[in-house]
Amino acid sequence: MEIIIVQVLGVFTFLIGSVWLGTWIRRAPDKDTAEKASRISHLLFWSCLVLPGSIGLLYPGLTRYDSILGVPSLPLQSPAFAGGLVLLLVGIGFLVRSNHALIRLGRGIAAFLLTRQVVSEQVYHWGRNPMSLGYYLACIGMGLMAGSTTVTLGALFLIIPVHMFNLRYFEERELELRYGQPYLEYKRRVPFLLPKLGRG
Hints:
mainly alpha, Four Helix Bundle (Hemerythrin (Met), subunit A), 7 helices, about 70% helix, about 0% strand
């Protein structure tokens, strides 16, 4: 139960941090502040969402969340597992391809070594946040594979909305400050999250 409490507190800490960082860069709208705030946001993401979630994989284990909380597990375990596996693999694909594009084209990585330019090619040609999409699909996929109502609903109604708030309220403004007009043009041209398939 302790790790579940830590995970919930982590999500709310990330939310509060996103509000604070978004407010900070609106009060001090310059590139230097945006870069500092971006590093803090990444630290919050890894320490408040990824680390507690990773610990939960091992203890208590994703299959035990429902029994700890007295919640019924998902019905149709085999189809849920198969669907979850597909989502997990697609999510990992988005994560790998988006990181590769950031390293190769943006000359940085997704966390503390910030990219130096807007990346608008490869997987970033279809959507502005393919790494986040991959993260969301992986979270839902793991919940389905575990047959866990708690993990699946927690991903859908807690982790994903809070992370999307961070993207909308903080990260988009931070990228506008760091990259200026090139990012604004990219933002006008490319959808936020879900890719438009068949784009030229």
